[in-house]
Amino acid sequence: MLDRVACGDLPPKPHLALRQGGALRYEECLTRAGFDGPYSILYREHPPQAFERVPPHSVAAPLTAVPENPLARRHYVTTRAVSGGPPLSTRVPLLFNEDVVVSVLRPTESDPCYFVNADGDSLFFVRQGAGTLRSGFGDLDFSAGDYLCVPKGVLHRFVLGEGPAELFLVECLGGLSVPREFRNETGQLRMDAPYSHRDFGRPKFRGPMDEGIREAVVKRGGVHHGLRWDHSPLDVVGWDGTVYPFTFPILAFQPRVSSIHLPPTVHGTFAARGALVCSFVPRPLDFHPDAVPCPYPHSSVDVDEVLYYVSGDFASRTGIEPGSLTLHPAGVPHGPHPGRYESSLGARRTEEVAVMIDCHRPLFRTAIATALEDTEYDGSFRAPANESSSSRGD
């Protein structure tokens, strides 16, 4: 989690009574790892546990795996996914394992109720669109190019701005964090980390708010449940702690550059159980006179690699587009398309923007993913028999 923030009215110490105009306020502790991890404490006008169960606004479809037959490199054109509706009900899951669920969203309207993901931390990447994530912590504005993290258990809803929206989502079932190597012994981000505390956006606290919405959907174990309060669940008068929603603009990531090509782990941005989320941003390329700046072919036998393409010219790929999602599974070599390795010689800069996830457990694909698949992708890595190289790519 990030550094501590304090907003609104708070008592001198946790677990002491807070009164406003003689009215007692109710403490809610949002804790991680039981009571041993990071936490935030919110103070509310009403008891947060005073809800009733109601039918949910939407019902989650179970994640059903499609057999991996054959073992192949795959390309999913996510811009073909159905759009329409609020973020709550437009999640399109494509890939999943015990650690992550990878989805895309193409919403067209704001959420009609609040949502709580009790299964994991939600890391969104906003490829298109803008809006506000509204929660008891305040309003958090986001726009295209932002990562948006919603910690597990945080009640929230999306308020979308004008224009089309498209979001890439990684649900981190074992939690999301800043990699440990980026912090010093006090927990502060190191000066050689690829970002600083100043790069992160935090909610703007507005005090108690009543939007007239009383219901929330809670996702637990992949199933949706409905809750209803008699009061607004945004009745927070103050909070402090280190667990809260935040944004991070991908272009604030500070890439490392070397004389020769560095492995993709140097682009690591967020750590999750069983996965590393990496950011590829515009940067100078390798500067050794004989350097091959294109990623080298490799067999990373312990990792399934997922790449979400955002914008720019991708040095190792052609035939893909913004919004493309590729899966290169462990067990087969992967690397640049025919001709890309050779043509990269002498290149000095790349303008690509992409999000990569390295997953240590095998990923399963959903039936929806198969409907979005470019079935010619796997064969595109083989040059035509009468050519030594080809400009065709993924």
Account of the 3D structure:
By secondary structure, the chain is mainly β. The chain is 2% helix and 37% strand. It is built from two helices and 30 strands. The protein has an eight-stranded antiparallel sheet with strand order 7-30-9-10-17-12-15-22. It has a seven-stranded antiparallel sheet with strand order 8-27-26-29-24-23-18, with no helix packed on it. A four-stranded antiparallel sheet has the order 1-21-5-4, with no helix packed on it. The longest helix is centred in the last third of the chain and has 5 residues. It starts with a strand and ends in a 23-residue tail after the last helix.
**How many beta strands in the DSSP annotation?**
30
- Find the structural class using helix and strand composition: mainly beta
Return Rg in Å.
Answer: 22 Å
Helix content: under 10%
**Distinct helical segment count:** 2
Described by strand count, sense and barrel closure, the largest sheet is: 8 strands, antiparallel
Provide a compact summary of the structure.
2% of the residues lie in helices and 37% in strands. The chain is mainly beta and 394 residues long. The radius of gyration is 22 Å and the shape is globular.
Tell me the layout of helices and strands.
Blueprint: E1 5-8, E2 19-20, E3 23-24, E4 26-31, E5 39-44, E6 51-54, E7 65-66, E8 74-77, E9 91-96, E10 100-105, E11 114-117, E12 121-128, E13 131-135, E14 138-142, E15 146-150, E16 156-160, E17 166-172, E18 176-177, E19 215-220, E20 223-229, E21 236-241, E22 246-249, E23 268-272, E24 275-280, E25 283-284, E26 304-311, E27 324-328, H1 340-343, E28 349-350, E29 353-359, E30 364-366, H2 367-371
Parallel strand pairs: 11-19
Antiparallel strand pairs: 1-21, 2-3, 4-5, 5-21, 6-20, 7-30, 8-27, 9-10, 9-30, 10-17, 12-15, 12-17, 13-14, 13-16, 15-22, 18-23, 19-20, 23-24, 24-29, 25-28, 26-27, 26-29
